[in-house]
Amino acid sequence: MKIYSWNVNGIRAVDRKGMFIPFIDKHQPDVLGIQETKAQQDQSAVEAPAYKEFWFSAEKKGYSGTAIFSKPEPLQVIHGLPKDIIAKYKLAADNYGDPNKEGRIIAAEYPGFYFVTVYTPNAKDDLTRIPLRHKQWDPAFLAYVKQLEKTKPVVFSGDLNVAHTPDDLANDKANIGKKGFTNEEREGFQNFIDAGFVDSLRMFKQGKGFYTWWSHFANARARNVGWRIDYILVSASLKDKVKAADIHPDVMGSDHCPVSIDLDI
Fold first, then answer.
1. All structural domains of the chain
2. Are 25 and 19 in contact (CB under 8 A)?
3. 64 and which of 58, 116, 197, 238 could share a cystine (Cβ 3.0–4.6 Å)?
């Protein structure tokens, strides 16, 4: 099964550029998790008849949002975090909005696993959303995927808005302590690893150079001066079933590129 994840930074924009359907046609993902749809489903003109579409859009128009495009019919689709986890971690609105109303998490259950795609809140340039990330969002999301894992293995994907290690960004020393590379955000990611989830790309590729997001400035993408902030992680029980993992910087249309795994399941 070919599983892909892509922060499209506006699905309507990518489609208007004529880059979404060619990506689908070339790569033929069986399951595709999408972040930052920035649209309601009825606003999308994408025509992908081989796929069933499941959307979780933000209440605020033109903002955030996730979706799953799937060839196989899921057993069920789940929108957002469970109420008990929201309550336990006191995940509520801050000065930027309510992350529970921003369409940030959607999950689909298949016979052999759960697939989750997530658009993690950005810490902001002044780091004012670090408390939300560190104390609420990251722990709540980890609790959610571990809860799902009690039933069956989990594959989760998305824009996690953090570079885990110095190898995950080109200019690590210059970005220590800045958004996306703070100790708190990196700790949140490390907690996924410590809980048993496996960073699929690092099973196959080591070192610098494997980036998924680039600034629009200074010709960063052409020079590959980027960050790896988009991931696919799998339960430890699925590790041996991951036959390949990759990034796809040749796919244009967004400031992020897709990431993928081949799962023998």
1. 2-263 (3.60.10.10)
2. no
3. 58
